[in-house]
Amino acid sequence: MPRILIIEDEEAMLAGLRDNLEFEGYEVDTADRGDDGYEKLKTGRYDLVLLDVMLPGMSGFDVCKKTRNDGNQTPIILLTARGEELDKVLGLEIGADDYVTKPFSLRELLARIKTILRRSAVTGTENAQGLIEIGQLKVSFENFEAFVNDESVKMSHKEFEILNYLYRHKGKIVTRDDLLDEIWGMDYQPTARTVDNFILRLRNKINTSEEQHIVTVHGLGYKLVL
Fold first, then answer.
1. What is the pLDDT of residue 220?
2. Same domain, yes or no, for 135 and 117?
3. Is 69:92 a contact under the CB 8 Å cutoff?
4. Could you tell me the CATH number of the domain that includes residue 57?
């Protein structure tokens, strides 16, 4: 049974989300402050987090950033009343996997949760043979671990998903639309800059001065070359 942590300070919203998720069969834990939610993430094990942006104690952005800095790759969906593009991009760039803008429909949120949990399961079992060498990076998609020269490298859950997709299609051209549809989903509309920023971060971790493993195919997309 997937375990979900809800970090939300609006009492009615928190209760409604908890009741509906439990009705869907999820095990639910809750926190109504950002700092309390962060502590639960440090000590507990969850399959997904619903994280409000505006929280007392610690903002949702700070909770997300600190969680990723700790090496915790639990999928995070941001719940935000803000609609500005800057906030959406910031949330994704600090490690969130998706966002839902309030007010949202329960059906939409449940669909996002199911999609992310399904992708996490695929990513976690796709390559169970051990560490895979991709350029200077050694990665375990099963355990969400990455190393360079035996030193741990911090990567977001979204970076693992993108790299996993590129690896499964190595030697083939992957378009931005391929990544948007597969990693973010048809209903989500990130900007091209968001995709490019994730690719740039992966390049910095994989490529060496001698070899470029994620190459740009101008006008088409990207290709992973091993």
1. 87
2. no
3. no
4. 3.40.50.2300
